[in-house]
Amino acid sequence: MKKTIILIFSLIFLNLTTLSEIIQPKNNLQLSIDFARFFGDEERVFLETYYSFRTDEITYVLDNEKYVGGVNIYLQIKEGEKIIESQEWTVPSVEIDTNIIKVGKTLVGLRAFFLKSGTYSMSILAVDFNNPDRKDSIYYPLHIAQFPQDRDAISDLELCSSIKQIPKDDNNIFYKNTLEVIPNASLLYGSGLPIIYYYFEAYNLLNEPKTDKYIVRTSIIDAMGKEVFSTEKTKNRVNNSSVEVGTVNTTTLKGGTYVIKAEIIDTVKKTSAVSAKRFFIYKPSQTDSMVLLSTGASVTGEYAVMTEDEIKYEFEVATYIMNDAEKKQFSNLIELDAKRKFMYDFWKKRDIDPMTQENEFKSEYMKRVSYANENFTSAFRKGWSTDRGRVYIVYGPPDDIERYPSSYDAEPYEIWNYNSLQNGVIFIFIDRTGQGDYRLVHSNHRNELQDETWYSKIKKAR
Questions:
Q1: Domains of the chain and CATH, by start
Q2: Would you give the end-to-end CA distance of the chain in angstroms?
Q3: In 3, 38, 234, 382, which residue has its Cα 20 to 30 A from 92's Cα atom?
Q4: Whether 146 contacts 45, CB under 8 Å
């Protein structure tokens, strides 16, 4: 039924565009997405997904003295390759005054889902009704974990443009817990929207509490890690759950990237639950927390706030896939800004699908780095820098691992099998120290160390 409605609506607009006055958008269509996870029930998490776009980014057509525009939105949630949710809907926009269209306003919406614990992905596509060639899409991974039930817990933070108490209204999609909560999906604040409204929920407050009171603390941290705002209030443990709302005036803050953090703390100052979210303040005359590079380019987001040590670490773990020219280029850089720009560009040019928000190549690579650190760290080296870590990061997980523990006359060793790599490849690692530091001694991969006498190296000296 939804597909039929969208098709009919689109055909109407197609006919109108050939007969009526058209107002073209002044900017590209940009879809903003944010989400927050809340307690649902004993088995599921309640996921709220927020979206928004500006009306001056869509095409309008004159129809019966009204200018009509809109956006088709297509949303899909997958668990692996299995589609869990698939929805399509229309967000119409009707205006009489062309000046309002030119100035533009933000249209905001919300979709909610119950999801069990697991790893999902969500993709959202927005298409201009009157010009299907104008579109924007966003993809991001979703990690859903059930909230703990044996201790204090806290939901994600929902950052908003407005929160106010209203009478119960089941027809209002933004109504919850006696409040109208209007999300700010762009997470952008500044001179036009100086006040941050925030909403979150606390759970399990009566579950064997150590104290009869607790502290709700909210703070703002700038790009350099400095706390620039904080507020605290003490509350009694009366109910098992609690809704927390508040505001932060950003007028005195400089433009840039920040993190807002909410904490539940018992009265002996022990943090029992925490949630945080990154947001942005835009002030055209200020670029304090935005990193302005010497090249004239600007990098925001994660690279804008990376420290020297963080950039160094990311460079080091990426050297496995760097060419000599890239390594030399980075070694010649002195300024931190230039190093940030280098790493940003390094991953960007390897992005498998630049049309998505996530850099899938980098995400997969860093997942392998994390796995290596968790599973291959020895007494001497971090997991990513070990031989097993390097092989795992570069080639991915093996199809099979043969493990041979220490015996009377042989050192422990492992044989990793990659069935689809160069028609079948093996990597052989030996732990000569007995400290879990497995070293590569042989592989039949054409670009790796080869030693057909490797078996003699596993024998213990007598």
A1: 1-146 (2.60.40.10), 147-288 (2.60.40.2550), 290-349 (no CATH), 351-462 (no CATH)
A2: 79
A3: 38
A4: yes
Whether 89 and 61 have beta carbons less than 8 Å apart is answered as no
Ramachandran angles phi, psi of 260, nearest 5°: -105, 135
- Give the span between the Cα atoms of 124 and 110, in whole angstroms: 13
Least confident of 31-35, 87-91, 199-203: 31-35
Q: Which secondary structure element, helix H or strand E, spans residue 213, and what is its range?
A: strand 213-221
Instruction: State the Cα–Cα distance between residues 192 and 220, nearest whole angstrom.
Output: 20
Tokens of 108: 């905001």
Q: Tell me the DSSP string of 394-412.
A: HH-S-SEEEEE---SSB--
Model confidence at 263, pLDDT cuts 50, 70, 90, reads very high
Say if residues 173 and 48 touch (Cβ distance below 8 Å). no
Distance CA 207, CA 231 (A): 25
Name residue 110's beta-bridge partners: 50
Residue whose C-alpha is closest to residue 366's, from 425, 320, 330, 333: 320
What is the tally of helices (H) and strands (E) in the chain? 7, 26
The pair of three-digit structure tokens given for residue 337, joined into one six-digit string: 């800004």
At residue 210 the predicted structure's pLDDT band, cuts being 50, 70 and 90, is: low
Task: Return the amino acid letter for 70.
Answer: G
